[in-house]
Specification:
- The structure is a single chain.
- The protein folds into three domains: about 1-65, no CATH class; about 70-225, Alpha/beta knot (3-Layer(aba) Sandwich), CATH 3.40.1280; about 245-310.
- β3 (about 70-75), α4 and β4 (about 95-100) form a beta-alpha-beta unit.
- It has 13 helices and nine strands.
- The protein has a seven-stranded parallel sheet.
- The protein has helices spanning about 25-30, 35-40, 55-65, 80-90, 110-115, 120-125, 130-135, 160-170, 190, 210-225, 245-260, 270-285, 290-310, and strands at about 20, 50, 70-75, 95-100, 125-130, 140-145, 155, 175-180, 195-200.
- The chain is elongated.
- With about 325 residues, the chain is of the alpha/beta class.
């Protein structure tokens, strides 16, 4: 009999306290929740505050109904690799692991040691004697492999596989992802049970990936596609970008000092040189702190040159 897996976690939603309330009954009427179990889990006095009940409905419904994929390790050989896979899964919010016929038995203390904080995932991993039992409740199964197979199967990238998994999971379907043993990967007898193959575009002269690495690639794609994090963020370190006025004042300061030093020569080119400098200042995206630093540098240079001139015989 398979060991029961860890149940789905409820997602906490934080909203502004200045917005309109909706009771548990309102959420049910609005179609937010289709599961009586979820409604029963909420206290009667529970209040949700939201600017748009429809928006809240979509958010709660999506989080509640989404079924993350289950990662299935088929005949893993080393406990360390099972632990590394668990750690990679938890890094990206995946907690449903199944293990089929581990070579060194189960539980495995080496797996726990390698999991480094993700041992709870191993505690709730499903243990199966064979692959058919491990995928019996799955609606769709991916098989990961780096080698070409003489099988008629759709072959997808990790990105596409997790895109498909999210779409199916949102519809309440259960998706499994198979990972083969370290020595030779999945056998054809395993792959024929899958709906599609996942292949990572790696160096064809050295395509072998460690089990933990392969799990991490798929886990990363799962998390990335569900994240709203921007691709690029400027860390301002307790400051803010300089305003247009700040930059213009800095340009004026530079022009003043450079003009006094005779930099804008010949005079016929001065206008173009100043325009190029102002274009540079505007393109740099300076912070207020950086603008102040430049002002300080210019003042210090001017003060030092003046003192030297005054002290000269």
């Amino acid at each position: 009999m398979p060991k029961p897996e860890h149940g789905a976690r409820r997602a906490a939603i934080t909203l502004s306290s200045s917005e309109i309330p909706a009771t548990k009954q309102d959420l049910g009427k609005a179609g937010v929740i289709g599961h009586d179990a979820f409604l029963e889990a909420l206290p009667e006095a529970f209040l949700v505050w939201g600017p748009s009940l429809a928006y809240l409905a979509r958010q709660v419904s999506q989080r509640w109904h989404m079924i993350p994929p289950v990662f299935i390790l088929v005949r893993p050989q080393m406990g360390e690799n099972i632990g590394a896979a668990a750690r990679a899964m938890l890094n990206f919010g995946l907690e449903r692991m199944r293990i089929v016929g581990p070579r060194d038995g189960w539980p495995n203390p080496k797996a726990v040691a390698m999991a480094s904080g993700a041992a709870r995932l191993l505690d709730h991993a499903g243990l199966f004697a064979d692959l058919p039992g491990a995928i019996a409740d799955c609606d769709f199964v991916f098989a990961t492999t780096a080698r070409g197979r003489e099988l008629v199967k759709e072959v997808v990238t990790p990105e596409r596989a997790m895109e498909m998994a999210r779409a199916m999971g949102a519809e309440g379907k259960k998706v499994g992802v198979l990972f083969g043993p370290e020595r030779a990967g999945l056998e054809n007898d395993d792959i024929v049970r899958a709906n599609a193959i996942v292949t990572v575009p790696v160096n064809p002269d050295f395509p072998s990936l460690n089990l933990g690495q392969c799990v991490m690639l798929l886990g990363y794609e799962w998390q990335r596609q569900g994240s709203e994090a921007p691709a690029s963020v400027m860390e301002l370190a307790r400051t803010e970008f300089a305003s247009r006025e700040d930059v213009d004042r800095l340009a004026d300061h530079f022009e003043e000092r450079l003009d006094a030093a005779g930099f804008f020569f010949p005079e016929t080119k001065a206008k173009g040189m100043k325009a190029n400098l102002r274009n540079m200042w505007g393109r740099l995206g300076l912070t207020r702190a950086e603008v102040q630093t430049f002002h300080g540098m210019l003042r210090q240079i001017a003060w030092t040159l003046k003192n030297r001139k005054d002290q000269s015989p």
